[in-house]
Amino acid sequence: MRRLAYLFPAFPVLHQTFTLGEVLGPLAAEFQAMAADRGMHLSVVDSAAWVRSDPLLLRRVLQNFLSNALRYSERGRVLLGLRRHGACVRLEVWDTGPGIAPEERERIFQAFHRLNHAGGQGLGLGLSIAQRMAALLDHPLGLRSWPGRGSVFHLDVPRAQPVSAPPAAAEIAHGVAAGRAVVLDNEPAARTALATVLQGWGWQVHVAAQPRQALETPWRPDLYVLDYHLDHGVTGLDVLRAVRRAHPGVQVLILTADRDGELRQRILDAGAMVLYKPLKPLALQQVLQRLATAMA
Length: 296
Fold this sequence. Notes:
Blueprint: E1 16-19, H1 21-37, E2 41-44, E3 50-53, H2 55-72, E4 77-85, E5 88-95, H3 126-137, E6 141-146, E7 150-158, H4 169-174, E8 180-184, H5 188-200, E9 204-208, H6 211-215, E10 223-227, H7 236-246, E11 251-256, H8 261-269, E12 273-276, H9 281-295
Parallel strand pairs: 2-4, 8-9, 8-10, 10-11, 11-12
Antiparallel strand pairs: 1-3, 4-5, 5-7, 6-7
Helix pairs in contact: 1-2, 2-3
């Protein structure tokens, strides 16, 4: 299906050495509020263990595991834990949901396959994407489940020797090659600030206050940066569909202050990247570094 081409952006895997806490801490902040809104409890075990992986792809796999666990668990708790497993750290997401029957355990990783449980929503893409990302990372992925009691998804991440210090922001920015970006935001101050940052990193920027202006560019963009909440009820996802028609294959980043997990999953399922407002320059630099490597 053509739409599947948009689910896995053509980014290379960028392995780095880092502590798991750099990934687990933000995940805890993101999903604990969502769990509380559902009347559930989410526990995330912190860790100072060093691993070798791509932090952005690893985070996305775990996000899909957590979203899936919260979606199908109507009560109880979800745990993101870890344990040593040979030369790896095994990251595990446990839930107290309905469990998965043996005959379903292979099919749930197929795109557009959803379980027929209450609470199951979305396109059925999360686990398919997680499996694809895990394969790109070369991190074994597994599942154990007990119908009526719950499930656990796990991912094995290679352990690594500690490094003296994480890469500085300036070093990350050094890998951000110049490109062409379209910035769409209905708030003048926000779009001016973002355009200024991108231009300072050598990017050519076309700013737009309305979707029509975003599509009328003097050149083919390398990246669209779309605010999610626009005027007159239009969203970044609405604009994404128009962008795909005008510029097939272009990379899209959606910015939002809404930390709702369902919205995040819809954005990811649509094949776009997502960052939260207020936007942190380091997070943006990492996205641009990945894009620069793909453009090289």
